Amino acid sequence: MKPRISMLTLGARDLEKSIRFYEQGLGLPRMPSPPQVAFFTLNGSWLGLYGREALAEDAGVSAGGSGFAGIAMAHNVDSESAVDELLEQAVAAGAQLVKPGRKTSWGGYAGYFADPDGYLWEVAHNPFFWVGPHDEEG
Hints:
This is Glyoxalase/bleomycin resistance protein/dioxygenase. By secondary structure, the protein is α/β, with parallel strands linked by helices. Helix content is about 25%, strand content about 30%. It has helices at about 15-25, 50-60, 80-90, and strands at about 5-10, 30, 35-40, 45-50, 70-75, 95-105, 110-115, 120-125.
C-alpha cells in the first residue's frame, strides 16, 4: 500500500446540512458530484460526504454506532491565533466547540470542534511541524 489517504468519507445523518457546513461554513471547494454524495478537494486528497445509512450499507456494517468513533481529523495552521479563528469559524457555521484552543502537553496549541454529525476535528498549531506553501491551510 502506498503511504497516502486518497479520500476520507464521512457518513452524514443530514447530508444537505453537512454539505452546507463544509462548503459554506468552512469554505471547502466542492467538486461536481451526484446529489447523493458530495466531494471536496483538499490538499492532495478529497473529503467525501455520503448518507450515513448508505455508507454503512456499502461497507456491509450497521449504521447504528454511537459515542466516540475512535477517530479525529486534524487541520494544522501556522499560528495560535489561526487555531482560535478557525474554531470560531466552525462554531459560527454550526459546529460544537468541544475543546477551546489551549497550550498542549507536546508544546503546541490546539482545540477541537465537532461537525454537525459529531465528527471530531482538531485544529492545531504545531511549532515543530512546518505549514508552508505546499500545505494549504486556513
